[in-house]
Amino acid sequence: MARTPAQWTTQPPVPSTHYVDPSVYTDPQIFAEEREKIFAKTWFLACHESEIPEKFDYRTFRHPAGRNLMIVRGDDMQIRAFYNVCPHRGNTILYNPSGNAKHLICIFHAFAFDSHGSCVDIPREKAGYQERLSKSDFGLRTVRCETGFGGFVYVNLDEASESLSDFIGEALGGMLKSLNAEPLEVFSFHRAQVDTNFKLWHDTNSEFYHDYMHYHNRQTSMLQPGYFERRYTPFKNGHAEVGDQIVNYEAYEGFKGRDLSFPGMVQNQWKMVDLFPGMTYNLRGSSLRIDTVMPVSATSTFIEYRGLGLKSDTPDERAQRVRDYNSIWGPFGRNLHEDLLGVHGQGKALGRGQTFIVQAREEDSTIHDEIGMRHFYAEWSARMGKASSGV
Amino acid sequence: MTVETPASEDRAFRSVSEFLYRACLMLDARNFKDWLDVCTEEFTYVIRAFSPEIRRDMVFLDLDLEGMTTLVKHLPRHNTDQSTFTRHMTVYVAEFDAAGTACNVVSSVAVYRTELDGGTTHLFALGRYHDTLKMTSGGWRFAAREVRLETRNLGIGTHYPL
Asked: CATH number for the B7-149 domain, one of 3.30.2090.10, 2.60.40.740, 3.10.450.50, 3.30.1130.10?
């Protein structure tokens, strides 16, 4: 029976931990709070070390808290992060997303900085500043930066926060052997802009009930042994692991089993870990996909996708990993478009006067249980100081 | 600048251009069966893009004729955005072999996406087609198509070939 307007906006008859107020996905004020209370306080994946392999390599990063950063590999091969802002008149220093520069020079007035963030040249310094200001007053703003968990460069805007390893805890424990056995390398990067809230993307990565949307996943996973035994394991700080499965790729006509794998993985094995507040490690045997959200407003989000293989790959191995990755996860892949279409649809539908978002499936923490999302929103509520249910 | 070209070269260029434009209309109409019929057995289809972010050439799709045929066959089984794609294509250069039975063609292409609900059109992707064509008894045929995209933010993406 269809519901009346009053019934439509009535709280569902389940605990308040099992639904989310729709305004959480659309309210600009909530988004502004998320930037400061969540994104500015947690570790976030900026790039991979293979994107800046040589000394003086750099990579820019639009931090989801709204700061523009640059990741720089120094002359000592250490990776550091700074605000991508000239301390003189606030211009952007690095305009290109990546490159190599011994000195980082602001185009505006040619202030120059070294790879450690020190200002090393100010044109006509003494003539303008005499003894009042000097290069030491114009160093770049440093940002905490650690590399790990597969060679990924994480940054944190909060000087007082816990370490990266404390933040991630044991969440990636089931994948570490594969991530750390040998160096990885990014072979694919693309960014998708979607008119939706960033959490809706992370929600999709945090539940598998939506496999009904994916013809490929229904054939290769849901109809295969072991699918309904996959279990969610929640970890501290809002992270969650999805138990592994052996995927039968050949059940999708035209696809072949993955000949290649990662160290510590058996052939065609699939593991996945979601990290709060918007990162996902998705390891399907031959390739690793990393998702990171980059929200720009409550209803607009960039999502960055990275595909990785082993740095030691032969050209043939790399080509095979790239094919495997793109067959489902590239912008023309069979799965990614469906997932993006789903969250695009949610972005169109959600808004004022909408019904609560229900996350009430309980199936002993197995694959169609919605515990992954509930675990995320428990952390979200704690950090925001308000219940995601609105109650 | 005036470039003098033999009439036979003009005819060949027009012949190749007409073939490519007709193939474009097939893709716009999502008439993939006819489009695959003008591909040779050794046909390969690749979508590439260079990423300034990771400073690498990337391959987004890489299929042979059998793979393309299977991709097309599965399209109705997937949940797919049904907005239409319309291509605006211009043939830039065509280089023929000595016998005039094979050529490499570079064309620019802009792909527009039009939403079914309301008909809003926006640019989906810009790029170039790098086509390898062979003359057969049935006329020109695709031996290879490489789509080199400038656009890498493809929004929600697509299941369809470009």
From this structure: 3.10.450.50
Q: Which residue has 């930037």 as its token pair?
A: A35
Per-domain residue ranges of chain B: 7-149
Q: Between β-strands A112-113 and A119-121, what pairing exists: parallel, antiparallel or unpaired?
A: antiparallel
- A132 Cα to chain B: minimum distance (Å): 40
Q: Going residue by residue through chain B, which has 162 residues, state the pLDDT in tens, using 9 for 90 and above.
A: 666 666 788 999 999 999 999 999 999 999 999 999 999 999 999 999 999 999 999 999 999 999 999 999 999 999 999 999 999 999 999 999 999 999 999 999 999 999 999 999 999 999 999 999 999 999 999 999 999 999 999 999 999 999
A385 three-state secondary structure: coil
The confidence score (pLDDT) of residue A259 equals 87
Looking at this protein, which amino acid is placed at residue A355?
A: T
Task: Examine residue A53 and say whether the peptide bond preceding it is cis (omega within 30 degrees of 0).
Answer: no
Q: Quote the ipTM score.
A: 0.94
CATH code (residue A53): 2.102.10.10
Cα–Cα distance, A214 to A248 (Å, whole number): 15
Give B-chain residues touching A319 at CB under 8 angstroms: 59, 62
Residue B79 in contact with partner chain A when CB distance is under 8 A? yes
Q: Which amino acid is at B61?
A: L
Q: Which residues of B touch A49 (CB under 8 A)?
A: none
Cβ pair B59:A326 closer than 8 A: yes
Query: A382 is written with which tokens?
Result: 């704690």
| Residues 6 or more apart whose Cβ sits within 8 Å of residue A117 | A72, A80, A82, A139, A140, A141, A142
Phi, psi of A360 (to 5 degrees): -110, 5
Q: Which of B78, B154, B157 sits opposite A215 (nearest CB)?
A: B78
Q: Which of B54, B60, B153 sits opposite A326 (nearest CB)?
A: B60
Q: What are phi and psi of A136, to 5 degrees?
A: -65, -15
> Is the pTM for the entire model greater than 0.90?
yes
User: Left, alpha or beta for A233 (phi > 0: left; psi -120 to 50: alpha)?
Assistant: beta
- What pLDDT does B5 receive? 67
Instruction: Give me the pLDDT at residue A21, please.
Output: 95
pLDDT for position B3: 60
Q: Do A98 and B53 touch (CB under 8 A)?
A: yes
- Whether B153 and chain A come into contact, CB under 8 Å, resolves to yes
Chain B CB contacts of A216 below 8 Å: 78
Ranges of chain A whose pLDDT falls below 50 = none
